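writing this on my phone so excuse typos. first protein, seq and then structure
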Amino acid sequence: MNKRKIILAAIDLILAVVLICQVAFRTKEKVKIFTIDEDITKLEISSTSEDIVLNRFNALWHVNEQKYIGDPATCEGLVDLLQSIRVIDQVAKTDSDADLAKYNLQQGKAVVVKAYNGDKLLRTIYVGKNTSSQYQNYLKIDDGKEVYLAQGNFIDEFDTTVDRVRSHTVWDIDSFDITSIKQTSADGSVLVLSYNDGTWAIGGAEINLDTIKAETWANTFSTITAIHWLADTTVITAQPMYNYEIACGNKLITLDVYSVFDEEAGYDLYFGRSSESPSPFELSSYFIGKLPRTPEELASAE
């Protein structure tokens, strides 16, 4: 390689390094992080579908005035998004609804999220649409006119519902605390299992009870998880397929199970009502398959 080519190659290399440094410097210049240093103890979320208020009491999040128990991971995930907002770029500066409509940030369209510590307002964000990548979102922060492009899928997280932010656990008890299970079927037949002096016994049936099967069935009732919550005012017109009474320590838990044919889906859906929740809820067909038992199914093979 002659001297002239070496010089040209060196110049090209220097220019490339300068260009990379300029791009990196400009990118770093655009990046801004909005942080909240105080604990967030309350969130107010207003969208076109639902208004949601999350309040933290000790380690638990409560949802709306009904104080439904919030799902810990979901609620803390929303807090984490607000605690540190990474802004990639400022794309506009405007308070015109016509301009803001390009980003779904106009009044009545944007999702409004307010973060509090007690009664102290820490931050307000206005959430618009996300980009085609789904990992960036248009935001406005506090009272500023700036429209930012932020890292994260804010719209999918904050344009949410009460059902999504609630814990779907209807109850969660220790199976060792269950001392009896009473199953009443729609035809009036009754099956009772009771635990006394370290062993299970069955009432109302002349069978040799398989204690392992009895224990397995009892374990089914230790944790009940809803697929979806229904509104508290929902009326289920069907008659219960089964009613359960579960004695646990000094507490009696009740569960009514319903089957409703969904014409659009073409199959049965299953719902429950329990003493442990003001809301009815949908149950999985898999779980329903483990619930009803006949004496024969609990009998020993011997």
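second protein below, same order as before
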Amino acid sequence: MMKRLIFIILSAVALCSCSPKAIVKACADGSLDVSFKTGFSDATGATLRRIAGIPSGAPIFSPNDMTMFLLDAGATNVSATTPTAQEVEANGKIKDLSHNALASTGILSRKANAVTLTLGPNQIRTLYTLLDDETKSYFDMMMIPALLGETLSKDEYRMILSAMYGRAFSDELIDGEVLLELSSPDGKKTQRISEKLGDILTLEKEKSWTLNF
């Protein structure tokens, strides 16, 4: 996998800033339509390029890498675009959660009349085990508490990131709003969730959101 995959994976589990949005729609045939959009400010984009060795002004995200990640996760009908050098939009359909890499993370689950999204330390650690060594090294750079085996408050985590990459980067990451949306097959029921990224990354136990329909 290419170095940029770290940012793709972070996007996939909504671990990004600048109000990323992830939408999971349950389909009548038992599948899930998944789409998300995320991006970074100019300042944070510059920091990420420096960390990953991406040339100044070059796109942070690669549509090809994004497409491959979704395919590896078991998605079909995949598409990805980069509206700007610091933004990405992607979508795909997951037909069977029981036979793909995403299932092992426990992030998404589907029952006949419900869909559940779960985030927490175990989900982050399980996702980490699926990565190649190079990508793990970039995950390590983010100093995520669950991967350090430590419990950190949001302020403590902010201080660590600020010391490593500067206050602007840490504030954008910690204070960024993660927008999540779960939708029923007929679209009549929708659950919208807004969480601070710093709250998600410093969770001490998993947090789940379920839409029953």
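Confidence is low (pLDDT under 50) at residues 1-17. thats all i got for now
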